[in-house]
């Protein structure tokens, strides 16, 4: 089928609100390492890793073999009512890696479902439907997950099963506190948290949900320690802290295995998805055992923790730990950020270059930091023309997001920097 026909059929039968990247949207038909090929035979260096789903890379033999051996048993899935060896092993591994004492794990099929579950567990545990969330957050497409999403463009309904109150902190570049020192910024956000608790809630709040680095919100980066300072306040009230690690988990941020690690605090629960399956659908919650066990009725996910996804996830986890991809993320992420700061020095269009590890955001601005979403669209197209796939996001749609597979090489980072420098120069000269 020709590309144009595929596009027309897509548009006819899939929702208008499912955005497609590019004037000429592409179909990815093959992948290898950090490269993908489209249906028209063009190969790209993928610096968005399929929105961070291909966290390790494409066509990794160890991972494909593990999935294939499970398929060869003839059992793609039967039921979570029976024992599943790889599910138990994966849960043990994640519980151990979480640092949460007496942790238990529940597997889902997506990040949304993971957050829905974590919020349900926290609200059930605390017998409260009040939740704190960060402005500029994204937590998924479910009813509760949309309710705690603090981005108008991604929160299509005002209806929510939760009573949500919003706190400053995640998005420093456009925060009223942005010009303060790190310590004063944290103090101002903590004061805001106390104020929100006292004015917009009845006090008996169930939980606070945070992304350590906001993903859809534009790879925004609060100062290290912010969430530890928040947790001190939360602990005064028994409010649980949920860290949404859907984008920041598995070593992506370089310095730490979980994004929240940068804050020196252990949350009560973490949610995960995307990179764990290296492309397979898997997500889940890891949380304090007493919180997980607090449900007062049966509950299952039919496919969550199925043997194919958990076998693939175990192999992914082995691969990223055996190859120390977290260190690779730290080293090459630092190079990516320093290379991009050099580009920013020549091009004021790059108002902010920020990130940690292989999660790097470029905020495109005009005079007085005015958001420039048209420039972001132009950079997206200009990088694609140069054989590089990147992402877009942010409250104003003016942030370019870079998140290559964690196995990216030094040469590939240099190649991406050249493409980005040229693309930014071209768009700046418009
Ligand atoms: N949380 C975060 C931080 C995310 O970035 C996303 C997906 N972009 C989700 C939750 C939802 O995950 P999914 O699309 O798998 O439901």
Automatic annotation (TrEMBL):
Its EC number is 2.6.1.44. SUPFAM superfamilies: PLP-dependent transferases. It is an enzyme of class 2 (transferase). The keyword Transferase applies. Its cofactor is pyridoxal 5'-phosphate. CDD domains: OAT_like. Keywords: Aminotransferase, Pyridoxal phosphate, Transferase. The keyword Glycoprotein does not apply. One of its GO terms (molecular function) is alanine-glyoxylate transaminase activity. Coiled coil: none annotated. Belongs to the class-III pyridoxal-phosphate-dependent aminotransferase family. Homotetramer. This is alanine--glyoxylate transaminase. It comes from Actinosynnema mirum (strain ATCC 29888 / DSM 43827 / JCM 3225 / NBRC 14064 / NCIMB 13271 / NRRL B-12336 / IMRU 3971 / 101).
